[in-house]
Amino acid sequence: MKKNAFTLVELLAVITILGILATITVPIVINVFNSASESAFEDDAMTLSKAADNYYTSLTLESDTKLPLLVTFNSGKETNKYKNNVNNACETSSERLLEYNGQTPDSGNIFIDSNGEVTLAIYDRQSKKCAIKNPGDKTVTFTEKSESECKLTNNPC
Length: 157
Known about the structure:
Blueprint: H1 8-59, E1 66-74, E2 77-84, E3 89-93, E4 107-112, E5 118-124, E6 129-133, E7 141-143
Antiparallel strand pairs: 1-2, 1-4, 2-3, 4-5, 5-6, 6-7
């Protein structure tokens, strides 16, 4: 009599081989996802820096300027505090002033002064990185600062 079934030893061998393959490939896949997340955050930080530059450039054509401007991100929500130069008052709004595509940062700030200098400190919880740009810097740098250290103290008013 001929049997067409696998023995227990054969099944255990296949399960062991699959376990070894999973042990090898899962960390590799996780690293790929983490590096993609970090790259996306870096792209978003550069996009926000450009959006701040574009905001200042667009305001030079208007008389209703809202500078200096402090954009604050808290749990993905954006709040703006600025000096309204028409009535010289300090105002706060949740209106989105910067035009950008991409993910909104978890926390941090962007400050645009009256001369168009951009200061940026934003934090991404997933990659645990802080993006920093100081006035005069051409690019954004990325550090391992904690979320509490990744903030600006600038006040537009």
